[in-house]
Write a structure and sequence with these properties.
Blueprint lengths: L6 H25 L2 E3 L3 E3 L3 H10 L1 H11 L3 H22 L3
Antiparallel strand pairs: 1-2
């Protein structure tokens, strides 16, 4: 199923993979937050976790473009990455 070269698969994967990675990072940070005796608990900023999730599309994109030569799937992943990046900058830009 994941060995097809079409836009829809790329867009779906590009939207789902960052959500999964963000969920894993959020779970790890909430479970194993770094505790300092003086200042309390250190946690990653939500914007940092979001950027790591968006960045995770790079590995999926590279796999489909370089290893499998699936251009349409890679373009779909890239489109979803640009959508996530636009939404990220819109929500986190302080005017």
């Amino acid at each position: 199923m994941l060995k097809k070269d079409n836009w829809a698969l790329g867009i779906i994967m590009g939207l789902v993979v960052p959500l999964i990675v963000y969920g894993i990072i959020l779970t790890i940070v909430r479970t194993y937050g770094v505790v300092d005796e003086i200042r309390g608990i250190y946690m990653m900023k939500p914007s940092t976790m979001q950027l790591i999730g968006i960045f995770s599309n790079l590995f999926t994109f590279r796999y489909y473009m370089v290893n499998l030569n699936f251009d349409k799937t890679g373009r779909g992943i890239l489109l979803a990455t640009f959508i996530y990046a636009g939404v990220f900058f819109y929500l986190n830009l302080n005017f």
